[in-house]
């Protein structure tokens, strides 16, 4: 597998999706609960690397590491941490059509290695192109999710906009109705 070095939007999106599978984001419900979960998550993101029995714990560990980076968005901390995540990389190369820089995954790598490299490239790309202030906690009061904002204006507020954004809208709507009834 190769990860285009300028494709930080895709890579940071996978990092955000990964951290938001954690039980703390779902009121205790683990969204990567069993051995099949890392493979399912990888397939969802079109990654073809094989899964090993140790991948579940390794992916959970990776998720904790990435979450810690998003929660402590100090520039140096992000760069050091994300660089470490790229250790499954083999070499820097060009994509097949030689239009873009890319980094390839070392041979024999697993799903965890692929995800680690992707998260590393995504975080470094966002720090470089958009800045450390793009790493944030979800703005919904009841949500413990976090995200990396890769939108152009940088005004994203929720970890899962369809879910948390809607919840906030519904709560605001109810509050308005209640005020009107008083
Ligand atoms: Zn949220």
TrEMBL record:
Residues 134-176 form the Zinc finger CGNR domain. Gene3D superfamilies: Jann2411-like domain. It comes from the Bacteria. InterPro entries: ABATE, ABATE_dom_sf, Znf_CGNR. Signal peptide: none annotated. It holds the Pfam family zf-CGNR. This is CGNR zinc finger domain-containing protein. It comes from Amycolatopsis speibonae.
């Amino acid at each position: 597998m190769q990860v285009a070095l300028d494709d930080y939007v895709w890579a940071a999106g996978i990092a955000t999706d990964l951290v938001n599978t954690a039980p703390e984001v779902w009121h205790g419900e683990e969204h990567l609960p069993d051995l099949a979960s890392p493979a399912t998550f990888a397939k969802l993101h079109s990654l073809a690397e094989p899964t090993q029995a140790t991948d579940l714990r390794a992916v959970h560990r990776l998720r904790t590491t990435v979450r810690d980076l998003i929660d402590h968005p100090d520039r140096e901390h992000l760069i050091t941490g994300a660089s470490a995540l790229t250790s499954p990389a083999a070499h820097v190369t060009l994509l097949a059509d030689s239009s873009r820089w890319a980094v390839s995954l070392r041979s024999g790598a697993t799903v965890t290695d692929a995800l680690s490299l992707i998260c590393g490239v995504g975080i470094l790309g966002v720090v470089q192109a958009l800045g450390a202030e793009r790493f944030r906690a979800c703005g919904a009061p009841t949500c413990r999710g976090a995200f990396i904002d890769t939108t152009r204006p940088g005004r994203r507020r929720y970890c899962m906009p369809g879910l948390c954004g809607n919840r906030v809208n519904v709560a605001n709507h109810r509050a308005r109705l209640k005020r009107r009834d008083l």
